[in-house]
């Protein structure tokens, strides 16, 4: 068995197992972690001039950010949810621009924004984890 295939199967099983038992709070964390991983991978492929794989990773990151946006509830989260939705839009636009311009600085910008959002999410106290699946 090819080592890459084995690693993909391991990751798929690991993620599936993590998703099944995860709280809504943890699921959002996993999405954020996935977006960060895809952005980092895209930067690596960009550096190696592997255009196809770079584009694939950026596309995945955009899809993940879109999934994060779908978790938002403007009725519950009000201005905070609207602002976060706008930030997700901005991040997606910057990722598209990074792909077109082949600009790693734009990937870094989006990665930093995602880290800031994730650090805020990670700081939510445990007693609120069951109530934070929608903002």
Can you describe what's shown?
The protein is mainly α and 135 residues long. It has one domain: Four Helix Bundle (Hemerythrin (Met), subunit A) (Up-down Bundle), CATH 1.20.120.340. It has helices spanning 3-20, 24-47, 51-70, 74-101, 104-122. The protein is globular.
CATH superfamily heading: Flagellar protein FliS
Largest sheet: none
**In percent terms, what proportion of residues is strand?**
under 5%
Q: What is the succession of H and E elements?
A: HHHHH
SS summary, helix count: 5
Summarize the structure.
By secondary structure, the chain is an all-alpha fold.
Topology:
Blueprint: H1 3-20, H2 24-47, H3 51-70, H4 74-101, H5 104-122
Helix pairs in contact: 2-3, 2-5, 3-4, 4-5
Question: Main attributes?
Answer:
135 residues, Four Helix Bundle (Hemerythrin (Met), subunit A)
């Amino acid at each position: 068995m090819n080592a890459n295939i084995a690693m993909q199967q391991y990751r798929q099983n690991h993620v599936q197992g993590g998703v099944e038992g995860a709280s809504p709070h943890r699921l959002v964390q996993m999405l954020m972690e996935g977006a960060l991983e895809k952005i980092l991978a895209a930067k690596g492929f960009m550096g190696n001039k592997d255009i196809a794989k770079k584009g694939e990773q950026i596309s995945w990151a955009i899809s993940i950010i879109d999934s994060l946006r779908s978790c938002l509830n403007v009725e519950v989260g009000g201005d905070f949810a609207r602002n976060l939705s706008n930030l997700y839009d901005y991040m997606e636009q910057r990722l598209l621009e990074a792909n077109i311009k082949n600009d790693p600085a734009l990937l870094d910008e989006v990665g930093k924004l995602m880290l800031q959002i994730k650090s805020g999410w990670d700081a939510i106290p445990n007693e609120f984890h069951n109530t934070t699946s929608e903002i």
